[in-house]
Amino acid sequence: MRAIPRRTVLAVTAGALAPPAVSTSATAAPSEGRQAAFGPGPVLRTDLLTQVTPRNNWLVTAVAIQYAHRIDLRGVTVPPTAFQVQATVGGRTAARTVTRVYSHTSAEVDDRSRPGRPGDHLIIELDPDDANARASGTDPLPLDRAYSVRQVADLRTPEGELVLKAGPFAHRNDDVITPVADDFTAGSFADSAGFELDFRLYQPAGFLRNPRTRTRYPLVVTLHGGGEVADNNMTQLTSNRIAVTFAKPERQRRDPAFVLSPQIPLPRPMDGPDGTDWTDAKVQAALIELIDTFVREHSRNVDTERLYLVGLSSGGRGIYSLLAERPDVFAAALPTAGWGEAAAMERITHIPIWADHSVDDPVVPYREGRFGNPGTWTLMNALETAGARVTRGEWANDLPKTEFEARSRALLRQARAARSHVLFTSYTAGTTPVSPHLSWAQTYENDVVIDWLFAQSR
Q: Which residues, 6+ apart, have CB-to-CB distance to 422 below 8 Å?
């Protein structure tokens, strides 16, 4: 995948548009001079645009075709039926549903209700709910040249002037663009014992512009779940919106930060005290050494008072373990659907934590946890017994974003009034979409929680 300017592909919908539709009839042929003026010339390349989504992971959401010359659709709407898109994934070829088509100045989705502007790109948006929309399984799918796009109808203005001419040939995608994720560099780290962790790293724009700057940035370390243990150094970014949350442009404008996303390799270590990966002695030692080494190598630019841990499922388990192992290093943590050792909670009562968990989680039970170690509800009780003030709230996990954040804001006000730095959000049974275990789908879309995290300092 090629690097692209920092931008994000937002959720796509097929909403109705107001401008007049482009005619696809063959009548009222224009003069050759007008055809030459509007003709976009040869196709230069075709790229897939993908998106890391909160609940459905990594999806192909659009195709971008770049032409040799500028396209001006003059404010008219292109009917989706003018294009046919097919995807060959896992040896099976099936159609994708086209929802919107518009010209643009670059290979990116425009989320406005009336999208697009004259430019050398044509954006063909696809229905994210298509059964074959996925960009990965356990590993990224081989998507290069997996999609074909064919224009099946001439596009004309209502006056009959040719805008784009249909043709017999289909175009296959040259590349795959994943906004935000493409801005992470890939690396690896071998610790002093020789154990190696792959990682992805996002570096803030100010640091890239001037690596000699003395500006100090927070460091966010993300710990993936058990499903992302792999050797691809990619799915820790694309399987859940955890790392990309902190690297997306709108968040970096508010809180520029380094984002470090390691990946546990195969074969699964699973030698931890309760059969998990991040508590495996080899993995945890390498992770600690990786963080320490990164901070030391970037000592001029990492704010050591603002190191944050974020993780889900077994990553949440990793957070509780790592906080107890290094209680004087991290400024705050966001563990979601995790579990841990109740006895270790007395060592971390001083650390700001905002935990969340679905009440009906069947994978990591809310109270019982896994492998003999309790879930979040029991850990919060243990923190309280050890002396921390815990502020609790419960609401539905499928609330609209504005209402969800309003509940979070109210909980935060309650915590501040009680001088509490530990918050715990429970999600009512039956309200977490897709699977009750996926309680994190709203966590990293919640600006109240992320703003709270960046406000913490040791």
A: 349, 352, 353, 354, 355, 380, 383, 388, 389, 390, 391, 415
Instruction: Please state, for a pLDDT cut of 70, what percent of the chain lies above it.
Output: 91
Name the DSSP class of 30.
P
pLDDT band (50, 70, 90) for residue 13: very low
Residue 64 vs residues 236, 267, 378: alpha-carbon distances, Å: 26, 37, 49
Write down the pLDDT at residue 215: 96
Q: What is the pTM of this model?
A: 0.89
Average pLDDT (346-365) is 98
* Gap between the Cα atoms of 179 and 9, Å rounded: 6
Which residues are CB-contacts of 229 (< 8 A; sequence separation ≥ 6)? Answer: 263, 264, 265, 266, 268, 277
Asked if 48 and 173 touch (Cβ cutoff 8 Å), the reply is yes
Q: What separation in angstroms does the CA of 165 have from each of 4, 72, 77, 96, 397? A: 29, 13, 15, 22, 47
Question: What is the chain's mean pLDDT, rounded?
Answer: 90
User: How far is residue 362's CA from residue 368's CA, in Å, rounded to a whole number?
Assistant: 10
